[in-house]
């Protein structure tokens, strides 16, 4: 397993650097019974309400992007292969991402891009309100899309809607004009999506083929790291607590390597990390859309050990 003892670095702010605004949307909750994946808080309380976060990213020039779409409204509309797990996890979603955006004054039709960290049901939401948006996924996602629902009635992954624009991230020259950055911080490779250092997609494999994370530059030399399902609970990225559990990861050895990279990233004073299901962020009062995370991130950085 990779271990990181040396310094890591990030691309510097450039003259005239642009920053993005990041907003968290609480797109439904799950009640996972999995102690091993979700941590000791389940042992203590008997259950855990885990949010499914989606994130809105606004760029002055490139407009609006969503990172993950969270859950589907009322847990309905998934391929039947998910039925058992949707019931087991007591999916609770009275307002989906499109509802939350509209409540906050943002029209779903104004979203230009949607990034899926990965294809699990609690991240893909409902694409229907966003027919104009380009979908961006890790290239290895294509492996899963060979067996889709409803062509295959037992398929877990729904076919893309007809006419859906899909872009696969390869972390190579094939992504041009987006630029490959290798490495980025403790991660092996990343894509500078807008080619201006404001928003990066990072290869974060292990959880599911194609899993990716994002790093948003929100103010000078300051970043919010959207970690998706690199792990499911804060105690795994807090140094020295425990190894990430085998449950729910496609390739546990690779997932654990990614976790070491995540832990190293979290040691940086200028990076604030948010997991897709980080219940403590809600409990601690992380602001939700329409309030931005940018100011909150500065406060979180100031609270970091050694800051
Ligand atoms: Zn998830």
TrEMBL record:
SUPFAM superfamilies: Metallo-hydrolase/oxidoreductase (SSF56281)
InterPro entries xref list: MBL_superfamily_lactonases, Metallo-B-lactamas, RibonucZ/Hydroxyglut_hydro
Segments forming domain Metallo-beta-lactamase: 51-277
Positions of transmembrane segments: none
Keywords annotated in UniProt: Hydrolase, Metal-binding, Zinc
Gene Ontology molecular function, alphabetical: hydrolase activity; metal ion binding
Family recorded in the similarity comment: Belongs to the metallo-beta-lactamase superfamily.
Name used for this protein in its record: Metallo-beta-lactamase domain-containing protein
């Amino acid at each position: 397993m990779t271990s990181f003892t040396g310094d890591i670095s990030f691309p510097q702010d450039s003259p005239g650097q642009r920053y993005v605004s990041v907003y968290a949307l609480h797109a439904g909750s799950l009640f996972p019974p999995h102690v091993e994946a979700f941590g000791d808080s389940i042992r203590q309380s008997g259950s855990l309400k885990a949010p499914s976060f989606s994130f809105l990213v606004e760029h002055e020039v490139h407009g609006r992007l969503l990172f993950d779409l969270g859950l589907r409204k009322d847990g309905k509309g998934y391929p039947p292969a998910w039925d058992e797990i949707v019931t087991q996890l007591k999916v609770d979603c009275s307002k989906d991402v499109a509802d939350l955006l509209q409540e906050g004054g943002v029209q779903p039709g104004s979203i230009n891009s949607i990034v899926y960290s990965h294809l699990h049901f609690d991240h893909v939401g409902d694409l229907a309100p966003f027919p104009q948006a380009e979908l961006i996924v890790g290239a290895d996602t294509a492996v899963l899309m060979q067996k889709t629902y409803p062509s295959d009635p037992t398929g877990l992954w729904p076919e893309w809607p007809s006419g859906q624009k899909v872009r696969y991230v390869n972390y190579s020259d094939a992504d041009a004009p987006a630029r490959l950055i290798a490495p980025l911080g403790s991660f092996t490779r990343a894509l500078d999506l807008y080619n201006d250092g404001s928003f990066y997609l990072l290869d974060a494999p292990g959880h599911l083929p194609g899993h990716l994370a994002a790093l948003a530059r929100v103010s000078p030399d300051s970043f919010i790291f959207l970690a998706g399902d690199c792990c499911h609970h804060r105690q795994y990225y807090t140094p020295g607590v425990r190894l990430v559990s085998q449950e729910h990861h496609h390739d546990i050895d690779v997932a654990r390597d990614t976790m070491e990279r995540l832990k190293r990233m979290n040691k940086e004073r200028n990076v604030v990390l948010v997991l897709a299901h980080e219940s403590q962020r809600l409990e601690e009062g992380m602001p939700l859309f329409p309030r931005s995370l940018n100011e909150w991130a500065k406060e979180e950085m100031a609270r970091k050990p050694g800051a």
